[in-house]
């Protein structure tokens, strides 16, 4: 299959894909509105999940509050910091690998630890 044929095939799949039901579209729009808020505002309370969007019916708290992060030890693991930031641990690891981590790190053995104070500063928006 040539690249042009592959592109035409993919376009035909996209064009023929059914539209999602209206309730899913509304949920996606609500999630996008939440994502547009500043990071500090999104993480200061609890992490927002898809079930939280349904008119506040669910009170799911997947991530820690800012006060909980403040009570953490001086350093935390990358996965734990990722939960506070509301990103996946693989994404935070990728940022670290590229040297674009939004938090300060300290090497510890063969691993890296996130300095909690830098995490708190980021979440506070400083």
Question: Which helices and strands appear, and what pairs or packs with what?
Answer:
Blueprint: H1 3-16, H2 22-35, H3 39-44, H4 66-70, E1 75-76, H5 78-85, H6 89-97, E2 105-108, E3 111-115, H7 116-124
Antiparallel strand pairs: 1-3, 2-3
Backbone shape: flat
Q: Characterize the biggest β-sheet.
A: 3 strands, antiparallel
Main sheet: strand order: 1-3-2
Number of strands: 3
Strand content: 5-15%
Structural class: mainly alpha
Q: Can you tell me the residue ranges where pLDDT is under 50 for at least 5 consecutive residues?
A: 45-60
By DSSP (H or I, 4+ residues per run), the number of helices equals 7
Q: How much helix is in the residues?
A: 40-55%
Order of helices and strands: HHHHEHHEEH
Q: Radius of gyration in whole Å, from Cα? A: 19 Å
Distance between the termini: 52 Å
The average pLDDT score comes to: 78
